[in-house]
């Protein structure tokens, strides 16, 4: 593989809270190749969305900042880029779709106008050309009768259709990376399946890389080649999706997979008890401590877990894990 | 499975239940129109078992449950809980039914009064629905806190001092307070983080085993349903399209909508993903205000014929109590 499209190295993002400065992302490194799809998995509050915002240069102003590390996109370090340059990159090269298609569209403009705006701002298209292109995009995301629907307002569309409009908007400038933050959590499963199919087709056609943020291992398995399991701002486990699902090394990953009742191909009479991950994600105050932050919830914890942060160990296949007992699992 | 158990009638019997909402349209003299949210729904539930209602949003799952709990008015049909009619009663009789039927709500953030202490939240149904003395009330509260896994000192805390999973435990304790016969769980885990879901699902099953509880379980998550239920009713556009026991439904789904729904669930099971061809159903459910003449699913069904467009299929037994409403299933 030549140079990856996106290379995040030792990224540390600090948030200023009332009492302290805490690292919400702590020493995170990963790579994303062109056309690849990678998923971030973990509970809420583990830093998945924060990573996405950092890549977009959208960290909350005055509160969040990149403290150290780099985000190299296409040879350019985004952490050093100016606000103007970032604005150019957003939408053109990297774009994002959000969880809530209900609230991320402007209710007082037609969807066509909102898509056309992106095209006018970023591609310098004229009024008419942008509108025609908006129609084509709506058609590409399989909204039936796009020519007519382009002048609809968001409230005239269903949740699935609104999410399609969001995708059309995000893809308007043929970005190199599409970040999808829980793109289907607000949607029904049949609609979710349609959106996944659409994203996979678009990836095949346009070669866009996809970063997906989710908590659903099933969705990861359908959408991505690799996954990053995040816990309390740190990467707990990184590797191929099939490999991790088959043999998770980090106890948190094991818990995340086993605690969900996955739908089975054949149902038998017995039902096993679900494995519980006791407790909840630590509060921000705990972040950044020199220990394993999962230790308080971990079934295989020993003394060392509380004394020192586990190093990240990578095996030859590129499967890495940050756990003092990661080797024992294999 | 619709036959009564040897011990007598089922705990919950719903016959031809219908709920409609009047829609204002066409001005002062316009004719009154109705939206049929629940249309001719029948099922029964044995003591100590769990019946799941699944379906997409807007399919009438919650409205059915609300009608059973007398929280919305049904316009037709019959509901019996422990051989007692629920619809049409008032006053003291209704109060008795409220004691017997309790609700666990979806969102533990908005279903607890923020200005009441945890123990007062659990005490409220005891005060308003039973004649328990205050000493006994305290005993019941203490026992319930232990049963749902909360510590005694947490009784004095307010809802905002609990995590989401703990709040749902308070909601469960409140539902159990009056020793109800039937507990309606409306999406009890969908607002919770994945790792916490397992804790609540295990708790619900433990409590069921311990107290012989009967659950009407509403969920859109088919993995959760597969894990929790004994029988399932699949709803589409206000009607039950398939109703049978757990193993028949998941191993041998008959209605095209059920098949499509199951195939849409993303899975980590490689074997299931390989075997199951995704049957995508296109578009959205039709406008509930303009119902078609035939089968409601006909416009999205991959197998629809002329008959499906013309007449509505009835829910009929297709062998061994496997109830399906489809012209094409024999």
Distance between the termini of chain B: 19 Å
The CATH architecture designation of chain B is 3-Layer(aba) Sandwich
Helix content of chain B: 25-40%
**Assembly state (oligomeric):** heterodimer
Shape of chain A: globular
Low-confidence stretches of chain B: 1-6
Give the count of structural domains of chain A. 2
Q: What is the domain total for the residues of chain B?
A: 1
- What's the total helix number of chain B? 11
Number of strands of chain A: 12
- Which whole number gives the mean pLDDT of chain B? 89
Structural class of chain B: alpha/beta
Count the helices of chain A. How many? 12
With strands numbered from the N-terminus, the spatial order across the biggest sheet of chain B is: 6-7-8-3-9-10-12-11
Query: Pair with the most extensive interface?
Result: A-B, 49 and 47 residues
Largest sheet of chain B: 8 strands, mixed
Largest sheet of chain A: 8 strands, mixed
Report the radius of gyration of chain B as a whole number of Å. 21 Å
Keywords:
heterodimer, A: alpha/beta, Rossmann fold, 2 domains, 4-stranded antiparallel β-sheet, globular, B: 330 residues, alpha/beta, 8-stranded mixed β-sheet, 12 strands, 33% helix, 21% strand
Topology record:
The complex is a heterodimer of chains A (330) and B (330).
Chain A: E1 6-16, E2 21-32, E3 37-41, H1 48-56, E4 64-73, E5 76-77, H2 83-92, E6 94-97, H3 111-123, H4 127-140, H5 146-149, H6 159-171, E7 177-181, H7 189-206, E8 209-214, H8 217-223, E9 226-231, E10 234-240, H9 241-246, H10 251-258, H11 303-307, E11 313-314, E12 320-321, H12 326-329
Parallel strand pairs in A: 3-8, 3-9, 6-7, 7-8
Antiparallel strand pairs in A: 1-2, 1-4, 4-5, 9-10, 10-12, 11-12
Helix pairs in contact in A: 3-4, 4-6, 6-7
Chain B: E1 12-23, E2 33-45, E3 50-54, H1 61-68, E4 76-81, E5 84-85, H2 91-100, E6 101-104, H3 118-129, H4 134-147, H5 164-176, E7 182-186, H6 194-211, E8 214-218, H7 222-228, E9 231-236, E10 239-245, H8 246-251, H9 256-264, H10 270-275, H11 306-310, E11 316-317, E12 323-324
Parallel strand pairs in B: 3-8, 3-9, 6-7, 7-8
Antiparallel strand pairs in B: 1-2, 1-4, 4-5, 9-10, 10-12, 11-12
Helix pairs in contact in B: 3-5, 4-5, 5-6
């Amino acid at each position: 593989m030549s140079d990856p499209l996106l290379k995040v190295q030792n990224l540390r993002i600090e948030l200023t809270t009332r009492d302290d400065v805490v690292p919400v992302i702590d020493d995170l490194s990963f790579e994303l190749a062109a056309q690849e799809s990678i998923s971030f998995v973990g509970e809420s509050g583990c830093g998945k969305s924060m990573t996405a915002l950092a890549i977009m240069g959208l960290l909350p102003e005055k509160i969040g900042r990149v403290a150290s590390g780099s985000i190299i996109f296409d040879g350019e370090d985004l952490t050093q880029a100016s606000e103007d340059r970032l604005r150019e990159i957003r939408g053109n090269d990297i774009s994002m779709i959000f969880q809530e298609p209900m609230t991320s569209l402007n209710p007082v403009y037609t969807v066509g106008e909102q898509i056309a705006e992106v095209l006018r701002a970023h591609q310098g298209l004229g009024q008419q050309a942008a509108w025609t292109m908006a129609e084509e995009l709506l058609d590409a995301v399989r909204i039936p009768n796009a020519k007519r629907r382009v002048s609809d307002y968001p409230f005239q569309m269903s949740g699935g259709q609104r999410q399609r409009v969001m995708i059309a908007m995000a893809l308007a400038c043929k970005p190199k990376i599409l970040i999808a933050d829980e793109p289907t959590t607000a949607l029904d499963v049949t609609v979710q399946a349609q959106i996944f199919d659409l994203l996979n087709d678009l990836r095949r056609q346009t070669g866009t890389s996809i970063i997906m943020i989710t908590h659903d291992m099933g969705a990861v398995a359908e959408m991505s080649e690799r996954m990053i399991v995040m816990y309390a701002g740190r990467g707990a486990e990184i590797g191929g999706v099939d490999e991790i699902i088959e043999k998770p090394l980090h106890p948190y990953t094991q818990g995340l997979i086993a605690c969900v009742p996955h739908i089975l191909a054949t149902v038998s009479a017995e039902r096993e008890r679900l494995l519980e991950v006791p407790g909840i994600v630590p509060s921000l105050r705990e972040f950044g401590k020199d220990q394993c932050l999962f230790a308080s919830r971990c079934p295989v914890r020993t003394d060392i877990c509380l004394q020192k942060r586990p190093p990240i160990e990578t095996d030859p296949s590129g499967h890495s894990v940050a756990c003092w007992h990661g080797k024992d699992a294999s | 499975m619709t036959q009564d158990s040897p011990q007598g009638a089922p705990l919950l019997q719903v016959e031809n239940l219908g709920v409609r909402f009047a829609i204002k349209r066409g001005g002062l003299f316009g004719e009154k129109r109705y939206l049929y949210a629940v249309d001719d729904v029948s099922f029964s539930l044995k003591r100590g078992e769990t019946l799941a209602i699944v379906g997409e949003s807007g399919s009438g799952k919650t409205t059915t449950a609300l009608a059973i709990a007398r929280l919305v008015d049904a316009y037709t049909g019959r509901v019996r809980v422990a051989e007692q009619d629920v619809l049409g009663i008032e006053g003291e009789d209704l109060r008795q039914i409220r004691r017997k039927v309790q609700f666990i709500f979806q969102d533990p953030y908005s279903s607890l009064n923020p200005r009441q202490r945890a123990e007062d939240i659990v005490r409220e149904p005891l005060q308003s629905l039973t004649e328990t003395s205050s000493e006994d009330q305290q005993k019941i509260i203490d026992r319930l806190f232990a049963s749902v896994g909360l510590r005694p000192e947490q009784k004095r805390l307010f809802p905002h001092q609990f995590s989401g999973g703990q709040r749902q435990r308070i909601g469960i304790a409140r539902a159990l307070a009056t020793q109800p016969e039937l507990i309606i769980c409306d999406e009890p885990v969908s607002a919770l983080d994945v790792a916490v879901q397992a804790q609540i699902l295990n708790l619900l099953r433990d409590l069921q085993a311990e107290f012989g509880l009967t659950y009407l379980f509403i969920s859109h998550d088919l993995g959760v349903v597969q894990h929790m239920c004994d029988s399932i009713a699949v709803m589409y556009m206000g009607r039950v399209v398939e109703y049978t026991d757990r193993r028949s439904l998941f191993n041998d789904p008959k209605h095209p909508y059920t098949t499509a729904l199951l195939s849409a669930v993303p899975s980590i099971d490689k074997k299931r993903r390989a075997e199951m061809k995704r049957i995508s159903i296109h578009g959205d459910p039709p406008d509930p205000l303009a119902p078609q003449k035939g089968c409601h699913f006909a416009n999205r069904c991959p197998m629809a014929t002329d008959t499906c467009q013309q007449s509505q299929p009835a829910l009929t037994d297709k062998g061994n109590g496997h109830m399906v409403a489809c012209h094409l299933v024999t």
